Amino acid sequence: MCTSALTQSLVRRSVRAGHVTNHKYPHINMDIDAINALPCEDFVNIFGNVVEKCPLITAAVWSRRPFANLTALEAAISEFIDALPESGKEGILRCYPDLAGRDLQGDTLTRESREEHARAGLDALSSGEALRMSRLNWEYKVRFGFPFVICARMNDKANILQQLTERCRNERTVERARGIEEVKKISHLRLQSLVLPDAPNAPNKL
Ligand SMILES: NC(=O)N[C@H]1NC(=O)NC1=O
Question: Dihedral sign, CA of 13, 155, 161, 184?
Answer without folding.
Answer: negative
